[in-house]
UniProtKB/TrEMBL annotation:
One of its GO terms (molecular function) is DNA-binding transcription factor activity. This is MerR family transcriptional regulator. The keyword Calcium does not apply. It comes from the Bacteria.
Length: 135
């Protein structure tokens, strides 16, 4: 017998709310999700893999409409391999840009940690302002 998971188990695994998972299902982002005889969703490993991909794409900044397109391409099969590859090349560019922006933010945060740490040691910002210049 195949192991399946409840919606609450899936929600817990991905740190999502049950309504979020229901929304994903309604939007068609979890292909082949079945319900038992009582109408309760039961998640297979393949369904959990789909949820994992949705979360990955969302975390990369992809809008739901584009995730729906990706899911449709997956269901269409091998004829869409080029489209999916191009989508992931574009997504990689976007994620690398986000990482660059986050690195710039982290650089400022690190500078401020050092700045305020030294100011606290000195008991004032007066000396730090003279000696710590940020380019």
């Amino acid at each position: 017998m195949m192991v399946t998971y409840s919606i609450s188990e899936a929600a817990e695994k991905f740190h999502l709310s049950v309504p979020t998972i229901r929304y994903y299902d309604k939007e068609g982002l979890i292909p082949n999700l079945k319900k038992n005889s009582s109408g309760v969703r039961r998640f297979t490993k393949a369904n959990l893999d789909s949820l994992n991909m949705v979360e990955c794409l969302k975390n990369a900044g992809m809008p739901i409409k584009d995730i729906k397109q990706f899911t449709a391409w997956v269901l269409e099969g091998d004829s869409t391999l080029d489209k999916r590859l191009e989508m992931f090349h574009e997504l990689r560019k976007s994620v690398l840009s986000q990482m660059d922006q986050l690195q710039e933010t982290l650089d400022v945060v690190n500078f401020k940690c050092e700045y305020y740490g030294q100011a606290r040691i000195d008991g004032t910002e007066k000396f730090v302002k003279k000696n710590m210049k940020r380019d």
